[in-house]
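Q&A FORM
Asked by: J.P.
Topic: structure of Phosphoribosyltransferase

PROVIDED:
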Amino acid sequence: MAGMTAPEREVLTYELFGTAVRDLATEIVDSGFEPDIVLAIARGGLGLAMGLGYALDVKNLSAVNVEFYTGVGERLDVPIMLPPTPSAVDLSGLRVLIADDVADTGKTLEHVRAYCADHVAETRIAVIYEKPWTVVPPDYAWRQTDKWVDFPWSSEPTLR
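REPLIED BY: S.T.
REPLY: Here is the structure written out as tokens.
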């Protein structure tokens, strides 16, 4: 494979992740938005949600697990929420900050925002990376990129 270069990637380190959390939290505070709850999209949004929870002094954190339903050898275009899902009653009237690592297609964010929409006072979205083609532009994004992103938690092989 001489002469072939790997496609350029966006590399997020744990140190840069800390910077991203702080920068996003500052942007959220400066915008005047005061969330009552930070709703993480698991798994990628869990770290960001925790960091924002501490930085914004929001103790109410929750998570939703969303996957694109896959049949045999196929990936459908419809994301589904896996149980347990937060009760709509628990979210009623709250200002919700949805946190995820990346807005790529945006379909997961769209699904979660729609789930919240009828019950909550307001929903805003924070992500570390925003891709130009996302169907849901986030309210807060640390960086825009069209490259593949290597996240520090998923760029190493698993240990089992």
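FOLLOW-UP: The domain at 33-147 is CATH 3.40.50.2020 (Rossmann fold).
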